[in-house]
């Protein structure tokens, strides 16, 4: 892989983040969802919405291959991952793992986070399992039409130790 670099997003990255997030969502998340879910999901991925999230302190970690945005990992409250997207042409290169580890280390350092949650798209469950997440049977999904699988990553668990690196 040529010249991969990671950094935190700035407000002026919001448009590029939105383009990537919407593209990945249309390809990997919307199939299998109810027809009216697209509007709901995509609305939170507008440049304005992302800029507001960044301004509110939600952290977006970005991965660039050369100068092209290849992936994004976003978290709120230093514990709930709400985006971990890698552009289709960059998948399979370890970018998601690098973004995940950066986001995780940052949250542990900043807030002492001991567990992370997310709501995985059905197609993404195998990826999250490889990253060390497990289904979170105790989680209650918000009342929503979005089909997803609640997952959890417990820092320091035996499962976590097998998935480092």
From TrEMBL:
Annotated EC: 2.3.1.-
Pfam families: Acetyltransf_10 (PF13673)
Domain named N-acetyltransferase: residues: 4-156
Protein name (Swiss-Prot/TrEMBL): GNAT family N-acetyltransferase
Coiled-coil stretches: none
Database matches in CDD domains: NAT_SF
Highest taxon of the lineage: Bacteria
Entry keyword Transferase: yes
Signal sequence region: none
Keyword list, A-Z: Acyltransferase, Transferase
PANTHER family reported for this sequence: ACETYLTRANSFERASE, ACETYLTRANSFERASE (GNAT) FAMILY PROTEIN
SUPFAM superfamilies in the record: Acyl-CoA N-acyltransferases (Nat)
GO-annotated molecular function: acyltransferase activity
InterPro entries, A to Z: Acyl_CoA_acyltransferase, GNAT_dom, N-acetyltrans/Recomb-assoc
Lineage: Bacteria, Pseudomonadati, Pseudomonadota, Gammaproteobacteria, Lysobacterales
